[in-house]
Design a protein that fits this description.
The chain is an all-alpha fold and 177 residues long. The chain has a single domain, classed as AhpD-like (Up-down Bundle), CATH 1.20.1290.10. Helix content is 69%, strand content 0%. It contains 9 helices and no strands.
Length: 177
């Protein structure tokens, strides 16, 4: 089965989700972020929310417009954040500072040595961490991005992409089977 294109995804959204048709087009075309950043964030978030049609459409789009390195990094970051967001969210939720004294011992070398851009991978990680509601990870990645001179507007746009992808995934839920 051939994956849907992004345009086909937009058309497949039910009428009740008209806002997502518009938002998806808007967030993926604004220029505060590079095409690689926009598509990498979107692909990583589609993988994080486990949307089969969005992931397939965004993978094809990312490969075509940003290249294999960006696509591979986005998918790797989504998987790494699935692991680390659970771990660090637990530490936050349990409220016991003694857990913070224990070593995490979770490897995340891909963030330090990505195939594409380290800053872009941090942006992907921030967006996925926002989707996964991990306060500690959101704060850490936001701080790293600000230190790398990524603006608040760029960070805001990455999270807008994440929010739109999460909403589209819910609206498209019946297509995921």
């Amino acid at each position: 089965m051939t994956p849907l294109t992004l345009e086909a995804i937009r058309e497949a959204l039910p009428d009740r989700s008209k806002d997502f048709k518009l938002n998806l087009q808007t967030v993926l075309s604004e220029d505060s972020l590079s095409p690689a950043q926009r598509l990498g964030v979107a692909l990583a978030c589609a993988a994080a929310v486990k949307s089969v049609p969005l992931r397939a459409a965004l993978l094809a789009e990312t490969l075509a417009q940003a290249g294999e390195a960006v696509a591979e990094d986005a998918l790797a970051v989504a998987a790494l954040m699935a692991m680390s967001n659970v771990f660090y969210r637990f530490r936050h939720l349990v409220g016991n500072p003694e857990y913070g004294q224990l070593p995490a011992r979770l490897r995340m070398n891909r963030l330090a040595k990505p195939a594409s851009s380290k800053v872009d991978c941090e942006l992907f990680a921030l967006a996925v961490s926002a989707v996964n509601a991990c306060e500690a990870c959101v704060q850490a990645h936001e701080r790293t991005l600000r230190e790398a001179d990524i603006t608040q507007a760029q960070i805001n746009d990455a999270v807008r992409i994440a929010a739109t992808i999460a909403g589209c995934a819910v609206a498209l839920g019946d297509l995921d089977s």
